[in-house]
Amino acid sequence: MTDDNQPSAAPRRASRRVPIILAAILLGAVLGFAGVYGIGAMKRNAPGDPACRPAVDLAQKLAPLAKGEVAALTMATAPLRLPQLAFSDAAGQPKTLADWRGKTVLVNLWATWCVPCRKEMPALDNLQGKLGNDKFEVVAINIDTRDPDKPKNFLKDGGLTKLGYFADPNAKVFQDLKAVGRALGMPTSVLVDGAGCEIATIAGPAEWDSDDALKLINAATAP
Length: 223
Fold this sequence. Notes:
Pfam families: Redoxin. The protein is an alpha+beta fold.
C-alpha cells in the first residue's frame, strides 16, 4: 500500500540532481573563466628571463651606492631582458643592443628639444671619457625626428667628442622601452649588463660624472 503522505521517489531524485547540475554549471563557468583569463594571467605573472637573475643580484649589491647624485636610480628587482633596441651609428650603419654583448652599457635616450637632456649630455660625455673602455660604454641614442644635423651640431658645438653618435629618427627605441615600462619621459637611462639585462633605470637627468655615479659604475663593472 502506498502512503500518500510520503514523497515519491521521482521528486527526491530530481531534488538531488539540482545541486549536481548547479555544481556542474559553476565548474564550467570557472573553467571557462580560466580558459579566457588564466593564460593571460600566467603570462602577466610569469617570471622574467632566468638568464637575467645575475643582473638582479648585482642590482641589489649596488643599491647602497644609489645615493647622492644617482639616488633616483631604480634598481632592478625582477629579471628583465631589454628589447633589442635598433638604431644607427654616425655612419648610418644599423646597430642593436646585441652589438654590445659582453659589455656593461648605460643606454641613454636624448633629444635636442629636451632641455634636461641637453643639460645632462656634458656629464654623460665626461663619464664616457673617464670610464669608457672594453668593459663599459655610454650609448646615448638621439631620437630627434627632424633635421638629423641638429643633434650632431649640438654635440660638436658643445665640444662633446667622447660620446659615440647614435640615432633613431623614428623614436622607436623610446616606444620599445616604454612597452616594458622603462621609458616614461625624457631623458631616460638604463644600466644594462653584458647579457642585455636591466641593472637599474632612471627617469630624468643625473650627474653622471659625479663621484657617486663613478663609484656605482665602477662597482657595476668590477670583476
